[in-house]
From TrEMBL:
Oligomeric form and interacting partners: Interacts with IFT46.
Originating organism: Jaculus jaculus (Lesser Egyptian jerboa)
Organism ancestry: Eukaryota, Metazoa, Chordata, Craniata, Vertebrata
Cellular location(s): Cytoplasm, Cytoskeleton, Flagellum axoneme; Cytoplasm, Cytoskeleton, Flagellum basal body
Homology family: Belongs to the WD repeat WDR69 family.
Protein name as annotated: Dynein assembly factor with WD repeat domains 1
Segments annotated as WD repeats: 88-129, 130-172, 173-214, 215-256, 257-298, 299-340, 341-382, 383-415
Function comment: Required for axonemal dynein assembly and ciliary motility in ciliated organs, including Kupffer's vesicle, during embryogenesis. Facilitates the onset of robust cilia motility during development.
Gene Ontology CC annotation, any one: extracellular region
Length: 415
């Protein structure tokens, strides 16, 4: 094996190794999830050298420089404020979803007007309108980290695959017998998964356009799905109150996670693939061991349905958003609630961390989005201006831009 190059991954912090083995170029990652601004870099690099033969003594100084660069990115941010950059009157009918590519150069919007639009982040200009669906475009995604393809899932029971660069439609995936309401690419961008109101999920080959597997087992609608970071497993959450873990390589069921007593609203793997987080209309989140399928914690405290939940990039923190108008932050290790986010006057339907894990963004039916300190729960800023509820909001990969999508038919870019 011969090391060819070292690359940085800022969020979560890590170093990517490109190496040659048997004449083929391969990659592996060194995750540095515990890295902090106070970490002893010299001691850490010695530890990396002991564990990774590709990092020889001659590479030690280079690795130290890379780790210091990662530390700089993790340094506490000042009180960055977001200002409205552009209002996009994106569609003639309400929006359904918003998604960003990893670099933050583009984002997409889905709508009841049966189209998906691709937008340039820097200028706010429309790049392409993806037309062809015969009903609402509900689920949308980029094939991150590459960002050169877009998948759209529709109430017309089909999923379409598009070029993000030209707007050309590569494939139309047909086979579901009801509305498609969730979808996701695997990390390798070889497969796209779709979840439907017909109770099944399907995996589709991006190159050939053929169906790979149908995941059968749920007794009610599938409304959430996601791959783990290796692409080897996929989870599906359903109105039947269960979450199923599937082997993405064989299509076989690995575990059924039984414990919630109402519909599932969100599902997510932790970055290291060891844990699964599920949110439910039963007012709780549950944390599961991804290997055994056993529940390891039930996170309580909300007084109404949980509408969204997520890990931060490192998996150290968990956030939940509820119809009770509050959000909560939990420590993954202790399973304890760290802080409660109070201030919205309506349901919170969306919550997400910034890449550094220091800020939270929430979107609410009260027509505002809010930026919070993830540790203290202090509201740092209220993003106002939408005239109807906000159902989608995200930070970009750097954490310096926010996108909000609203039922007022507009999308706003904040910088």
């Amino acid at each position: 094996m011969k090391l060819k190059s070292l690359l940085l991954r800022y969020y979560p912090p890590g170093i990517m190794l490109e190496y040659e083995k048997g004449g083929k170029l391969k990659t592996k990652s060194i995750d540095l999830l515990e890295l902090s601004p106070s970490t002893d870099v010299g001691a850490l690099v010695e530890e990396i050298q002991r564990a990774e033969p590709l990092i020889t003594a001659t590479r030690a100084e280079q690795v130290k420089l890379l780790v210091r660069r990662l530390q700089e990115k993790l340094a506490p941010q000042g009180s960055h404020r977001f200002y409205l950059f552009k209002v996009l009157r994106a569609h003639i009918l309400p929006l359904t979803n918003v998604a960003l590519n990893k670099s933050g150069s583009c984002f997409i919007t889905g709508s009841y007007d049966r189209t998906c639009k691709v937008w340039d982040m820097a200028s706010g200009e429309e790049l392409h309108t993806l037309e062809g669906h015969k009903n609402v475009v509900y689920a949308i995604a980029f094939n991150n980290p590459y960002g050169d393809k877009v998948a759209t899932g529709s109430f017309d029971k089909t999923c379409k695959l598009w070029s993000a660069e030209t707007g050309k439609c590569f494939h139309t995936f047909r086979g579901h017998t009801a509305e498609i309401v969730c979808l996701s690419f695997n990390p390798q961008s070889t497969v796209v998964a779709t979840g439907s109101m017909d109770t099944v999920a399907k995996l589709w080959d991006i190159q050939s356009g053929e169906e790979v597997f149908t995941l059968i087992g749920h007794l009610a609608e599938i409304i959430s799905l996601s791959f783990d970071n290796s692409g080897s497993r996929i989870i599906t959450g359903s109105f039947d109150h269960t979450v199923v873990v599937w082997d993405a390589g064989t299509g076989r069921r690995v575990h059924t996670l039984i414990g919630h007593c109402a519909e599932i609203s969100s599902t997510m793997f932790s970055w290291d693939c060891s844990l699964i987080l599920t949110g439910s209309m039963d007012k709780t989140c549950m944390l599961w061991d991804a290997t055994s399928g056993q529940c390891v914690a039930t996170l309580t405290g909300h007084e109404d349905e949980i509408l969204d939940s997520c890990f931060d990039y490192t998996g150290k923190l968990i956030a939940s958003a509820s119809a009770d108008g509050t959000a909560r932050v939990y420590c993954t290790a202790t399973r304890k609630c760290i802080t409660k986010l109070e201030g919205h006057d309506g349901e919170i339907s969306k919550i997400s961390f910034n890449p550094q894990g220091t800020r939270l963004l929430t979107g609410s039916t009260d027509r505002t989005a809010r930026v919070w300190d993830a540790r203290t729960g202090q509201c740092l800023q209220v993003l106002e201006g939408h005239t109807d509820e906000i159902f989608s909001c995200f930070f970009n990969y750097k954490g310096d831009i926010v996108i909000t999508g609203s039922k007022d038919n507009t999308c706003r870019i904040w910088r």
